[in-house]
Write a structure and sequence with these properties.
Layout lengths: L6 E5 L5 H10 L5 E5 L11 H16 L5 E4 L2 H6 L11 E2 L2 H11 L4 E6 L1 H6 L1 H9 L4 E6 L3 H7 L7 H17 L3 E4 L8 H8 L4 E4 H15 L11 E5 L3 H12 L8 E3 L6
Parallel strand pairs: 1-2, 1-3, 2-9, 3-4, 5-6, 5-7, 7-8, 9-10
Helix pairs in contact: 1-10, 4-6, 4-10, 8-9
Length: 271
Amino acid sequence: MADKRPIGVFDSGLGGLTVVKEMIKQLPNEDIVYFGDTGRVPYGTRSVETIRKYTLQDEKFLLNNDVKLIVAACGTVSSVASDTALQLPVPFFEVVSHASKSAVNATKNGKIGVIGTNATVKSEQHKKHILKFMPKSEVITVSCPLFVPLVEEGWYSADDLVVTKTVERYLKPIIDFGADTLILGCTHYPVLSDAITKIMGKDVTLINAGTSTASAVKEYLAKNNLQSEKNSASHKFYVSDKPDSFRYQASILLGKDIDETQVQEVDLSSL
């Protein structure tokens, strides 16, 4: 039976829009409700307890919008707080396992790099999934805490010296390691893909978790006959801080303009 309810997606800020972009591409008929916790970004530098608290509030907000499933478009949440899904009444999708499987399928030399926030890297969840899928692989993980602020500030051009020098400094261990595949372990990071490729080289495959996760959602909806039968889709965006800057950056990340009526500021303190 078809299900017209929207898909719920949340992230600490703008990065989750890279997942939304892939979902719009693969699921053009599905309504999407997106929540970006722009007032509390980033999550990756916070304690596990705080991340879990924020995650529960984000999930509750989406449930209040009658979503049919929830996507944690956040590497940090997927790494350290995905167990919150156990109490959800709807299916839950995280980005770590899907990205890890894609990396295993892509690597030719068995050397895989993972970059993410402090919390994501410390959790070692990507490494655990990769070794489960490919026990003989070698994995290197590097924390890149400045990447999220760069993206949120709108600094991600491969021609920006500050961006390229920051990327170069973080990725040097991965280059020295000889990885031929690199998981962008935070959904903000695909925005920096051009700069990362400039430093890593075109022979290194970048794994965008958004692409892998959108494919998994598409497969699940088809398998369970939960696709929307609508001929058009609506996309609503909610943020926890002023929406003006979000609209500007979101239009760049999504590749289309967002009308002011599509974005609304909300307060999660009561949840």
